[in-house]
Write a structure and sequence with these properties.
The protein is an alpha+beta fold. It is built from 23 helices and 8 strands. Helix 8 (188-208) runs antiparallel to helix 9 (215-239), helix 9 runs antiparallel to helix 10 and helix 21 packs antiparallel against helix 22. The longest helix has 35 residues, at 510-544. The chain is elongated and about 90 Å long. It is found in: Cell membrane.
Length: 717
């Protein structure tokens, strides 16, 4: 239907928005879905949490793990059975322990089955009593031919249930911890996906108060998520990218959070253009022209930030770069093609009951954000100092417990494998840590063994088998697993054995892997964080065509991150009682909060620059705040809620990432972007756009004094 009342430019837009275009886009997405949806279900089959895959090949513990796997029986899973009775072990208890050991050793024939104290060749006693007479233990090596840790630990615990009343048992050890950890991640992708869908659905319903409209962005984002999962699967198969369960969950969160944000921004602009264009296709073309540049700039910033992770040494961290970038790209394409196409096909009625009517005279209401802007303009210093004061108080929380979180403290509710280590340390204090594995050349085994036994922090060292030109030694530290003291012992052992020329000794094991992961992450932080800041700053400079504005925006994001981190540490330490912060949290949170936090500043600043050309710096910023305030706040709430989904999972690391990013996004959307950035812009004035032409003052009429920013009329450039 022709629209005679349409503004200038309607005809060209109409030619771009032919009737067949939306249907063609939808048809192409249907074909794409037919190909990609089956592949998306295969992503879980290529995820891995193995330290060998996660750590760089240069890490010493990785070399040990690779060598161990290449030797006969090297892939065996190590379980430790700890029996204990408060009143002391009885004869019946000891007989039960021996019976259990014999039955399990027969059921799972091991390469080496010995307790510490044996000689590693099966000549020592298979079970060991504690010096206090209240506990007994034995170690069982189970071949991977019987399955992975998660598949084995349950049957082992079930097989040892037959025991006298009062005799307690914990099945622990490295493999038991891995099994319990695998159980936490079992089905996590489906749980995160379904929970995220429910959260986003509720928020969209509350936002639009429409019985149907909420479904459209949900369908489009769902299509983007499935396409992203399939794309990541293809990247793994084609390029060997490492995807762990953590990154798989983050992929879902990113796509749903960012995709829904893009939907909110586009719908807001589309609703506005529907008042000016009767033809919905033409209205959508104009909406895309207005919203797409900011959305594309936002996506480009996040993608650029994520790709900086490629320089990281930790494979799981570097893998998150292309994984996250693929997710953002799929979300961008879906929300700029499939989403608008479906909206156009369904027409205005999709907004029922609040259907936007065609009218060239739409009155603008000042609204909450307009009043907030006026208040900030009147009290610029108060708004600036007040915002910085709040952020500064929150940042004080960084003085809390920011120590590294132990692997045993990762569980929200301690499983048997974790409590087992506590019991083991109580009754066998000389065997407090997880065993280290040392590989050395056979000719140097005795010399290395002697040096290790004399190293402070080592409880016992047991020579193992010789195979494939290597001899292995099992070393038991005295300190609890993943503690600073145990890590210091590992470092001392490495220094000692490396000094033996010709031995080619290397030290690994579960705790050594955790130490190497922590060291590698710390090194990655020093490399990735400055690179992310530089890349995002360059993107902002190109977008805003200025230097001062990008520097100001980056400074506010960094301050916001410090405040979010400090406030979160206070919550983790004081309220939730967590034992530390996982080593991966600071880098992940920084990346997401800088990239995503800058997003909202991009939406605000790009609109402010657009309006400054017409209205001047002061009125341009106030107009931008009024126009974008509602939709950006809604987008922030949605993104925060999607990351908060991670806090529903029973793993401390994911809770910490989810809470910190959600809190940081809310802080950025509600305080930094809404108050601090406008206040700073008004204080700095037109110099915020230096060195662009917008930073130059308007020439006053002859004989008059120069005009201030507030007095400047519309700039005529």
């Amino acid at each position: 239907m022709a629209v005679n009342a349409a503004p200038s430019g309607e005809a060209p837009a109409g030619r771009l928005a032919g009737r067949w275009v939306p249907w063609l886009v939808i048809g192409l997405w249907v074909v794409l879905a037919a190909v990609m949806v089956p592949l998306s279900g295969k992503l879980s089959s290529v995820t891995t949490d193995s330290a060998v895959d996660t750590l760089p090949a240069s890490a010493e513990s990785t070399k040990v793990a690779v060598l161990e796997d290449s030797l006969p029986g090297g892939e065996d899973n190590t379980f430790v059975f700890v029996y204990h009775r408060a009143g002391g072990m009885t004869d019946a208890d000891r007989a039960t322990v021996e019976r259990h050991y014999n039955a399990l050793a027969k059921r799972y024939p091991p390469k080496v089955t010995t307790a510490p104290g044996g000689d590693g060749e099966g000549e020592g006693p298979p079970t060991s009593p504690s010096t206090d007479g209240k506990a007994m233990m034995f170690t069982l090596e189970v071949s991977t031919t019987y399955g992975g840790p998660e598949a084995i630990v349950g049957p082992l615990r079930e097989a040892a249930k037959d025991r006298p009343a009062g005799l307690e048992l914990e099945v622990t050890g490295p493999a038991a911890v891995d099994g319990d950890l695998d159980a936490v991640f079992d089905g996590i992708d489906v749980q995160v996906f379904l929970t995220t869908v429910v959260v986003v659905t509720l928020l969209l319903i509350l936002t639009y108060r429409s019985p149907v409209l909420w479904l459209i962005p949900l369908v489009a984002v769902g299509a983007a998520a499935l396409t992203a999962m399939a794309t990541v699967y293809l990247l793994v198969k084609g390029f060997g990218i490492v995807v762990n369960d953590q990154n798989s969950a983050l992929l879902t969160i990113l796509v749903f959070g960012v995709g829904t944000d893009y939907a909110l921004l586009l719908i807001a602009r589309y609703r506005e253009t529907l008042h000016h264009h009767e033809n919905v296709r033409v209205a959508m073309v104009h909406a895309l022209r207005g919203a797409a540049p900011a959305i594309v700039a936002s996506a480009a910033t996040v993608i650029a930030g994520l790709l900086c992770l490629l320089v990281a040494d930790l494979n799981s961290t570097s893998g998150l770069g292309p994984i996250g970038a693929a997710g953002i790209l799929c979300a961008l394409i879906a929300m700029l093609t499939l989403f608008p196409a479906v909206l156009v096909v369904l027409g205005r009625r999709i907004f029922w009951p609040a259907i936007p009517r065609f009218s060239t005279a739409v009155a603008e209401k000042p609204g909450l954000w307009g009043r907030l802007g006026t208040a900030i303009s009147r009290r610029r210093w108060a708004a600036t100092l007040g915002s910085l004061g709040i952020l500064g108080v929150l940042a004080i929380g960084l003085a809390g417990n920011t120590g590294a979180l132990r692997e045993q403290d990762q569980f929200l509710s301690a499983p048997e494998s974790v409590t087992g280590f506590t019991v083991l340390h109580q009754h066998f204090p000389e065997l407090g840590g997880q065993p280290m594995t040392i590989f050395t050349r056979p000719a140097y085994q005795e010399r290395v063994l002697d040096i290790v036994k004399r190293t402070p922090g080592v409880a016992e060292a047991i020579p193992g088998q010789t195979s494939g030109g290597w001899a292995d030694i099992s070393v038991f530290p005295t300190d609890a697993p993943d503690t600073v003291a145990e890590y210091d012992t590992i470092k001392r052992v490495r220094t000692a054995v490396h000094a033996v020329n010709g031995a080619e000794a290397i030290v690994g094991g579960p705790s050594a892997e955790n130490l190497d992961t922590e060291v590698t992450t710390s090194r990655d932080e020093k490399l990735v964080i400055p690179l992310v800041l530089t890349v995002v700053l360059i993107v902002l400079g190109l977008l805003l065509r200025a230097i001062v504005a990008p520097l100001v925006l980056m400074a506010t994001v960094i301050v916001s991150f410090a405040a979010a981190f400090g406030g979160s540490v206070f919550v983790f330490d004081t309220i939730l009682g967590f034992k530390g912060v996982d080593y991966s949290v600071p880098l992940l949170a920084f990346l997401f909060l800088v990239a995503l936090g800058v997003d909202y500043n991009i939406f605000l600043a790009s609109r402010a620059r657009e309006e400054t050309v017409r209205l001047g710096t002061r009125d341009g910023m106030l107009k931008a705040l009024s126009a974008t305030g509602g939709v950006i706040t809604s987008a922030g709430l949605v993104l925060a809620a999607t990351f908060a989904v991670l806090a529903s999972l029973p793993l401390v690391m994911l809770i910490e990432v989810g809470f910190l990013v959600a809190f940081g996004v809310l802080l950025d959307a509600l305080l930094v972007r809404s108050v601090l950035v406008p206040a700073l812009t008004l204080l700095i004035g037109r110099r915020i756009w230096w060195p662009s032409r917008l930073s130059r003052p308007v020439e006053p009429p002859a004989g008059q004094r120069p005009l201030t920013d507030d007095e400047e009329p519309a700039l005529q450039r």
